[in-house]
Amino acid sequence: MTTDPIQRAEQKPAEPEHISIRTADGFTINGSMWRSPGPDSRDRPVVIINAANSVRCRYYSRFASFLYRNGFDVITYDYRGIGASRPPSFKGFDAGWIDWGELDFDAVIRFALETFPGRPIDVAAHSVGGFLVGFAESSCLIRRIFTMGAQYAYWRDYAPGKRAGMFAKWHIAMPLATLLLGYFPGKRLGWLEDTPGRVARDWARSRPRFEDVPGGSWAVRYPDKRVFLDRFEAVTAPTLAVSVTDDEFGTIPAVERLLSYYTGSARIHLRIPPESIGEDSIGHFPFFNGKFEEKLWRIPLEWLRSGKIAEDWPGEIITPEGRG
Q1: How far apart are CA 280 and CA 77, in angstroms?
Q2: For residue range 9-30, what is the model confidence (pLDDT) as tens digits?
């Protein structure tokens, strides 16, 4: 296990630089980059942070700064239609999950390879961000992957006690609002950022196998399912998938359903109860809140550094039968 010390918060946090990245279809996405100017920077791995569905990348700035202080250069970015990558108007604009993965995430990987030649490229992904990894053709070049609560929102995988309310919210109210306005007004409702219509529809129409969604954006672009399923299988980076027991999205079935697509990756599923770290709750989003720096962030840090797990980590390893 790595013995490198963990660098805690500095008095003055690292200042990131703004970046703009052109995608293969000519769209410009925006984000931030923490880059070391030091003479030894050539030895620093690079971490790309994939945000959750319709969450601005600035939410992960504290976590990015933490990784930067501990030996990584870091890139965060907003998917097209979200935050700093939102167009002036949603009229006539549309994008789906496949665009976020195949075009946006892939462009960020290529940007990282060009900006940091010869460096290892790692990924830290939250929620749907772990799903998008498989759509990018360049994902086969990633060294290691860490995910938190990663799944693609198949409604039957939601936590049983909250499933009915979540179905009503995300699979009835969200698509209805999207149908009326042409996009999902998440910011106005206080649920998410405003979201492109096709993303909302991809989510609302979830199925046990995501490629079987009727009218899904991947089905339109790839009538032959094997074309993009092969991309998921081509991901060889070892993956540490963390889930927490009070995450209504990231249940064991949900996380395992997604992991089953990454058959080329050595996959470890670590499930953490809040009480194991002396907390009453963690949930789907707060893992990346700065209050968990001391208790949780060493887990992705040590994984990305070494690709190993420590015996003193909280939680247990999930090894269900039938994983692909």
Answers
A1: 31
A2: 654 557 899 999 999 999 999 9
Count up the domains in the chain and report the number.
Answer: 1
Q: What is the pTM of this model?
A: 0.94
Got the DSSP string for 236-287? -S-EEEEEETT-SSS-HHHHHHHHTT-TTS-EEEEEE-GGGGT-S---SSGG
- Alpha-helix runs per DSSP H in 72-145: 97-98, 106-115, 128-132
Residue 58 within a domain: yes
So what's the pLDDT on residue 219?
67
Question: Which band of pLDDT confidence, cut at 50, 70 and 90, is reported for residue 1?
Answer: very low
Residues recorded for the chain: 324
Give me the pLDDT at residue 6, please. 75
* 272: in domain: yes
CATH at residue 300: 3.40.50.1820
Q: Does residue 263 form part of some domain?
A: yes
Strands 145-148 and 183-184: unpaired
What are the φ and ψ backbone dihedral angles of 181, each rounded to 5 degrees? -105, -15
Domain that holds residue 103: 17-160+222-318
Q: What is the pLDDT of residue 272?
A: 98
Measuring CA to CA, which residue among 155, 270, 130, 250 is closest to residue 208?
A: 155
Torsion of Cα atoms, 77 then 78 then 83 then 85, to 10°: 100
For residues 242 and 139, the answer to whether their CB atoms sit within 8 Å is: no
In a domain, 324, yes or no: no
Return the half-sphere exposure (C-beta side, CA atoms, 13 A cut-off) of residue 59.
21
pLDDT tens, position by position, 281-316: 999 999 999 999 999 999 999 999 999 999 899 999
Q: What is the C-alpha to C-alpha distance for residues 257 and 261, in angstroms, rounded to an integer? A: 7
